[in-house]
UniProtKB/TrEMBL annotation:
Its EC number is 5.4.2.6. This is Beta-phosphoglucomutase. The gene is pgmB. GO terms for biological process: carbohydrate metabolic process. Signal peptide: none annotated. Keywords: Isomerase, Magnesium, Metal-binding. Belongs to the HAD-like hydrolase superfamily. CbbY/CbbZ/Gph/YieH family. The record marks 116, 147 as: Important for catalytic activity and assists the phosphoryl transfer reaction to Asp8 by balancing charge and orienting the reacting groups. It comes from the Bacteria. Its cofactor is Mg(2+). Substrate binds at residues 11-13, 27, 46-51, 54, 78, 116-120, 147. The active site is at 11 (nucleophile), 13 (proton donor/acceptor). The lineage of its organism: Bacteria, Bacillati, Bacillota, Bacilli, Bacillales. NCBIfam families: bPGM, HAD-SF-IA-v3, PGMB-YQAB-SF. Pfam families: HAD_2.
Length: 210
């Protein structure tokens, strides 16, 4: 599967870098301002989910509801908090084996794309100093449907000028694995086998594939 792939499409959070902790801190801060606690356990429900859907889940946890206009302002506020956190990112926060694995793929002539719901993807790649390792970046600014919809990965294949079956997806979230399979691609799960049981292969991180 990995030997024959012509394209590799990577999720960002939890695969390339662990920015999930910063998302959590930003959401938790917003919840505190709204008068309730948002726990790490609650945060599990937000993995691989779009910003507005994440806000809906957070408000559900707090038993609150707001008009759409206010919700957009809240999502923007959360993003500002998050950007403050990730502003301090540097290459030291790359997950183990990431740079080596991406460099190895480039040497083999494999097309590399990012497939992430994050609207801050380019900013993060720049901070990590690995933008030049990607042939295509498909993020929340380019697609409208969140995972488990396969749009982000299908768009990645188009940008790499490849067929879906020629690509392998690297994902840490259940919704992302589902999206990859729905796109007709093989999927490498990054994380726990019991959570990512639909993936074709599960590893703890890209360092295991070196």
């Amino acid at each position: 599967m990995l030997q024959n792939m012509k394209g590799a499409i990577f999720d960002l959070d939890g695969v390339i870098v662990d920015t999930a902790k910063y998302h959590f801190l930003a959401w938790a801060e917003l919840a505190r301002e709204l008068g309730f606690e948002f726990t790490e356990e609650d945060n599990e429900r937000l993995k691989g989910v779009s910003r507005m859907r994440s806000l809906d889940i957070l408000l559900e946890v707090g038993g609150l509801d707001f008009p759409e206009e206010e919700k957009i302002a809240m999502a923007d506020k959360k993003n500002k908090l998050y950007v403050e956190f990730i502003n301090k990112l540097d290459q030291s926060e790359l997950l183990p084996g990431v740079k080596e694995y991406l460099t190895g793929l480039r040497e083999r002539g494999v097309g590399i794309a990012l497939g992430s719901a994050s609207k801050n993807a380019m900013f993060i790649l720049d901070k990590l100093n690995i933008t030049d390792l990607f042939d295509a970046v498909v993020d929340g600014n380019k697609v409208s449907n969140a995972k488990p919809d396969p749009e982000v990965f299908l768009t990645g294949a188009v940008e790499l000028k490849l067929q879906p079956e020629e690509c392998v997806v690297f994902e840490d979230a259940e919704a992302g694995v589902e999206a990859g399979k729905a796109a007709g691609m093989k999927v490498v799960g990054i994380g726990k086998p019991e959570i990512l049981k639909e993936a074709d292969l599960v590893v703890a991180g890209l360092h295991e594939l070196l």
